[in-house]
Amino acid sequence: MNRDKGVTGPAGFRAAGVAAGIKANGALDFTLVVNDGPNNAAAGVFTTNKVKAAPVLWSQQVLKERKLKAVVLNSGGANACTGPEGFQDTHATAEKVAEVLECGAIEVAVCSTGLIGERLPMDKVLSGVDTAKASLDNTVEAGLNAATGVMTTDTRPKQSWKAHEQGWSIGGFVKGAGMLAPNMATMLSVITTDADVDKDTLDAALRKATSNTFDRLDVDGGTSTNDTVLVLASGASGIKPAGEDFEKLLTEVSADLVKQLQGDAEGVTKEISITVTGAATEAEAVHIGRIVAEDNLVKTALFGSDPNWGRIAMALGRAQAQIDPDQLSIVINGIRVMDKGTRGEDRSNADLSGRDIDIIIELALGQGAATILTTDLSHDYVEENSAYSS
Amino acid sequence: MNRDKGVTGPAGFRAAGVAAGIKANGALDFTLVVNDGPNNAAAGVFTTNKVKAAPVLWSQQVLKERKLKAVVLNSGGANACTGPEGFQDTHATAEKVAEVLECGAIEVAVCSTGLIGERLPMDKVLSGVDTAKASLDNTVEAGLNAATGVMTTDTRPKQSWKAHEQGWSIGGFVKGAGMLAPNMATMLSVITTDADVDKDTLDAALRKATSNTFDRLDVDGGTSTNDTVLVLASGASGIKPAGEDFEKLLTEVSADLVKQLQGDAEGVTKEISITVTGAATEAEAVHIGRIVAEDNLVKTALFGSDPNWGRIAMALGRAQAQIDPDQLSIVINGIRVMDKGTRGEDRSNADLSGRDIDIIIELALGQGAATILTTDLSHDYVEENSAYSS
């Protein structure tokens, strides 16, 4: 994977990231990604939160056509819980982009991230569209600026790009550091491809890829009001890949973006992988992995480098899933600390001093398996989230 | 409420709390409560966790008879995930108590709390029974020692006692500071009464009282492997109260014990009450209250005294419940910060600098209402739970 390129890696795309003045500190806060075609197929997945931000409501409507000319994104404000006025702001933003790009507003998706409950400074947003339009380019720099313009508590821009040997490629950026349990966090991602993929194939591939990547990261259980992943296909390579080839590469790029989200999560000191095997179903494996990933007693123990498997057993015992405590085994960094319902090897043999922690939970009931990525609960997490209004 | 008396407040009960040597530091770690009758009705509610400790499995069996002579409790070890051997340890403890009290093991409930996954030092447990038997008394001091013997990370013993004007009373103790979301945390409570209450009335009253008190405290979502609340009725007052009078006083004493759990929770700096009104059903109100209570972004914001209502809206939007975002209002310490789906009064008017925070979530859909008690997520919470193996 190449992390130096992103949305402008594939042919047929231009992007820009500019300082529109939404953020008081003058940082980049406004991003525009444009698909120059020849195709304009697109697909999107959105937050499952019942409280949805105005840009999510707008983009869900727009994506019904599965055609996009452009995506406009801002940091510095989520435009969530802002009522009908907030929705009008989103609409006006799309209209302005449509005007400068000479397309329809229905071809423009909108994404926002930042504090919930505040209106956006629309004068700055609208002039930002003009500035961004003037900066559009297909360069590596333009892609990096686009990835930077959406950052909130992220410490670094996060991009991924990979080419297929057939001559087409997939690239994208992602932002997100807290409120991060994408089911479909404010987690925003725009992915581009120059493959010639029709809209139905694109939609199916995106749903499959996100369900196995974005949907399996759970930092803090906080599915946001604004979570969005969009994929845009320009067809500029002129190559029509096989469906499974496209889905495979899209999953790889998505997984790499998710790995970067995990590594840059708020207060992270441990990158934790929780694999559940032998569950009754895959859905139960995912549910059990999430229950453990979200448990504060597990997360604080791991921050303390303590292989406290009893807390893992406690946490998963709360799952709405089939569990036989007498069949349950837990392996932490290769040490089988719990074996068939009771104490296994001495837990002090499990060395958790490093950054990576690998937990395997064996239920020994069925064939269901899944891996959930999460992070620990550290002092820095508490500090960032008690001091920063997001 | 009188917090100086507990299980020995009602007539017909003796108790003891001794140092059996289970804890290395020599603190009190072993408690015995004995019902001297004339009656021996009892009822219990237990953890809903699928991974249940040996003493829970034992006590659930014993309580089927709804008759108890005694309850024996230890701190310093949960006896959970200890396999058949752990269950035999519990059984042997009950047998030893039955021997010294000259009753049947079937009349002895057992409770344990401490680290999960370690066997108990049975020589110390068994000699502890003898020491405790020799210390049994009906004094205030004996009750206080009993309440102290079950403490783990608790900073203080927690008792409550109240007399009914008719001449009978209810008293009890509780322990618990983390892994605390009793649905039925290691949260242990023994409640006594000298009312003449039959076992069916006692059972019904306990279920009703706990569902409205213990089950509505949610510090960290951590329903433990060992949660237990037991109530024992001696009938020693000779007075048979009306069912509703008994249930009302039992609920009051339970609520006072729960308030003390909240106030002594690990790392607590804020005592937070979340009231949900206008839900479709009471069950949905409870579910929504719990989702908000368990949300780390909400908990860290409140630690920072930040009335960040957007995080509350985000958290509850994840609930599996009927929600209309446009009807949603949020009141924090008297300030209506969110009104019918959008920003209300300036949130800076909500002063959260004190210890008590009162949140009201108005759904405006139906008649369902519930209040959940929780605490904030502080640096001390992270410190205690990353440094202490519980």
UniProtKB/TrEMBL annotation, chains A, B:
Transmembrane segments annotated in the record for this chain: none
What residues make up the catalytic site?
Answer: 186 (nucleophile)
Q: What is this protein called?
A: Arginine biosynthesis bifunctional protein ArgJ
Q: Which reaction does it catalyse?
A: L-glutamate + acetyl-CoA = N-acetyl-L-glutamate + CoA + H(+); N(2)-acetyl-L-ornithine + L-glutamate = N-acetyl-L-glutamate + L-ornithine
Q: Which InterPro entries match?
A: Arg_biosynth_ArgJ, ArgJ-like_dom_sf, ArgJ_beta_C
In the Enzyme Commission scheme, what number(s) does this protein have?
2.3.1.35, 2.3.1.1
Q: Which UniProt keywords apply?
A: Acyltransferase, Amino-acid biosynthesis, Arginine biosynthesis, Autocatalytic cleavage, Cytoplasm, Multifunctional enzyme, Transferase
The pathway noted for it is: Amino-acid biosynthesis; L-arginine biosynthesis; N(2)-acetyl-L-ornithine from L-glutamate: step 1/4; Amino-acid biosynthesis; L-arginine biosynthesis; L-ornithine and N-acetyl-L-glutamate from L-glutamate and N(2)-acetyl-L-ornithine (cyclic): step 1/1
The GO molecular function terms of this record are:
L-glutamate N-acetyltransferase activity; L-glutamate N-acetyltransferase activity, acting on acetyl-L-ornithine as donor
Q: Which Pfam families match?
A: ArgJ
Q: How is the quaternary structure described?
A: Heterotetramer of two alpha and two beta chains.
Positions binding substrate in this chain are 152, 175, 186, 266, 385, 390
Going by the entry's taxonomy, the superkingdom of the source organism is recorded as Bacteria
Family assignment from sequence similarity: Belongs to the ArgJ family.
